[in-house]
Amino acid sequence: MSDHDKTPRNPSARTWTRLGPGALSGLLAGGAALAVAELAAAVRPRSGPVVAVGGAAIDRTPTAVKDWAIRTFGTNDKLVLQLGILAVLTLFALALGAFAVRHRRAGAAGVLVFGIVGAAAALGRPDSTGVTDAFPSVLGAIAGAVLLYLLAGLLPAPRREAPGERGEGWDRRRFVIAATAAAAASAGTGVLGRALSGAGGREAVASRENITLPPPDSRAPAVPRHAQARVEGVSSFTTPTSDFYRVDTALVVPKVDATAWRLRIHGEGVARERTLTFDDLLRRKLIERDITLTCVSNEVGGPYVGNARWIGVRLADLLAECGVRPPSAGGPADQLVARSVDGMTIGSPVEDVMDGRDAMLAVGMNGEPLPFDHGFPVRMVVPGLYGYVSACKWIEDIELTTFDSYDAYWVKRDWAREAPVKTQSRIDTPRPFARPKAGPVMVAGVAWAQHRGIDKVEVRVDEGPWEEAVLAAEDSRDTWRQWSYAWRATKGGHTLTVRATDRTGEVQTDKRTRTVPDGASGRHSVVVTVD
User: pTM of the prediction?
Assistant: First the structure.
C-alpha cells in the first residue's frame, strides 16, 4: 500500500496528519533557534535570548510581583522564571509550526519574532556591550526560520477536497529523516554551546582556586562560647556558606576572572581617582569581622538573613585615600553608587559607609575566597543596612554622587533610598503547627538589629504577659543574637509571639507592614498544638 493509500479518510485525522507534523516542525525550529543562540552566546552567556528576556522581565515586573515570587519560590525564583519563558516559547513554536502548514513563508517569518524580542532585550540590558549582544538572538532566529521553512515544505499542502476525494499524500519517511537530523543537530549545537560557555568560565574558576587569602591584619574576636543557644532546632550562629541565602537578579551567575578584575573609584569629591586590581586589595590591610546580612525582601520570620565571617578591605580607608569626605565633613557626595559586572546599581549613604562601622570590600567568606554566587571576586558588605542599599556583588565600579541626581536600580522600582535594618526577631523552634508534648518546651530563635545590637528578647504565650527570654552571649552589635525561653506548655492550641528590644531602647513594633519600601515590620508568631 502506498503512502497515498494510507491517507486517513476521517477529516479530523486528516487535520492532525497536517497540523501534528507542523507543530512538531515548529518545536524543532524553536529548539534549533535556542541551540544556535546558545552557541553564539558562548563567549557572553548573558547575551543569550532566554537570559536577556528573563532579565528584561525581571526589570519590568512590578515590585509586588517580584516580592511574591521571592516569598513563594525563594532562591528558585530565577529557575521558575526561565522555565516559564521556555514554556511560553514552546507554545509559541507549536502554534507557529501549525500555522506554517498553510502559510509556510509567514510561519517561518514568525520565528524571526524570537530574534527581535531577544535582540531588543539583550540590547536593553544595563550591562549590554553594544550591538554584538543582539547577534545570538538574531542568528538563532534565522536558523529557526530556515529550518521551519524547509520542514514545512515537506508537509502535505492543504487544499479543498471534492466529495469522496482522498487527501494529498506526502513523503513521511523524508520528513522523519529531516526532523530527526534537525533534532540531532540542535542537540549537538546546544551541547557545544554549553561546553564553550563553561570553558569561558574556567579561567575564573582557576583564578579563584589559585587564591590564598593572606592572614587579616585585624582578626575577628573569637565567637563567645555561649553565643550558640544549646537548643535543638536553632539556626547555627555562623551560617554555613552553602546555606547562606542568595537573592539577586542575576539569571546567570557572573564568572569573573580575578586576574582581569578591576575596580574604578571616581565621581564627585574624589580628588584622586583610582583603579584597583584584586592583588592591590590583597596587599592592603585586611580586616576580618562577623557580620549578619539581611535581605529587604525578608518577611517577618523569614529565612533571608544569615551570619558569616567576612574578610576584606575597610571601605572608608580606601575612600579617604581618594580624597572622599562624608557629608558631615563637607563632602559634596552623599551617595555611593556601586556597579556590578551585570549592570546592577546599588546606592549606599556615604555617611554610613564612612561613620566608623566595618563597611568593607569583602574578598573572603567563612575563611574562603568568596563563592561565585556571593560575589567573587569582590563584593560590598555594610553592617546595619539592607542588602539592596549596601551589598553589591561582583562589584567593578564605585561612583560618588548624590541621591538627588541619581536613583539606583531598586530605588527606581519604588524601594526607599536609605534602608537601615529594622529590629527583628524570629522563632526557630518549635516550628509552626508543631505538636510538642505537655510540660517543659524550649522556645528559641534569633534576633537582630545590626549596628545597634540586641538588648532584650521577650516571649508571649497567647495573650498572656511578656516574659523575658535568656539571651545567648553577644558576639558583636553587628551580628544576630540567639535567645531561648523555657515554656511550661499546657494541652491545647497556643500562639507563641516574640519581640526584641535593641540597644537604643526601641521595641520591635507590632505594626505589620510588607517588605516594600524599606523592609517588613511586625512580630513573628507560631501556632502550635500541645498534646
Answer: 0.85
